[in-house]
Amino acid sequence: MYLLPGLKRLCGRTLAQILDEDNIVSIWRIAKLFQLTRLEDQCTEYMAKIIEKLVELEEFVAAVKENAEAVEERQETDSIPLVDDIRFHITSNVQTYSAIEEANQKLEALENLLASIGLEC
């Protein structure tokens, strides 16, 4: 690119402030494209919060498939980076029984999506 890391970071911070259900996948793709790791992490954290809604969106399903295909020489049960990051955020702050149940519901929604599109990880 044009070697403007400061501008990239500023744009990343600005985009992080406008994350919502309608733009989360697009912004995650932008973060991946421009290697904005902090924004990418913020996107996957937000995805983890709304995963039950995301699994119903074609754009998200397509992103999961693309991310799986991007893993070179991916074996049937290799991990998918996007899915791994979302799982991490779902389980990272679980401390109470109700939080465990909520996390399990979110993980189940994600697993059901993976099964429906024929992916294992």
* Helix proportion: 55-70%
Q: How many helical elements?
A: 7
Run of helices and strands: HHHHHHH
Kindly report how far apart the N and C termini lie: 33 Å
Average pLDDT value?
Answer: 91
Number of strands: 0
Radius of gyration: 15 Å
Helix vs. strand class: mainly alpha
Low-pLDDT residue intervals, each spanning 5 or more residues: none
- Net shape: globular
Total domain units: 1
Note the main sheet. Answer: none
Strand content: under 5%
Pfam families: BACK
GO cellular component, one term: ubiquitin ligase complex
Keywords: ANK repeat, Coiled coil, Repeat
Organism: Limosa lapponica baueri
What does this structure look like?
The chain is mostly helical and 121 residues long. It has one domain (5-116). Helices cover 69% and strands 0% of the residues. The chain contains 7 helices and no strands. The chain has helices at 5-16, 24-33, 37-49, 51-54, 58-70, 81-91, 97-116. The longest helix has 20 residues, at 97-116. The protein is globular, with a radius of gyration of 15 Å. The mean pLDDT is 91. Residues 54-120 form a coiled coil. InterPro entries: ABTB1, BACK, SKP1/BTB/POZ_sf. Keywords: ANK repeat, Coiled coil, Repeat. This is BACK domain-containing protein. Residues 25-63 form the BACK domain.
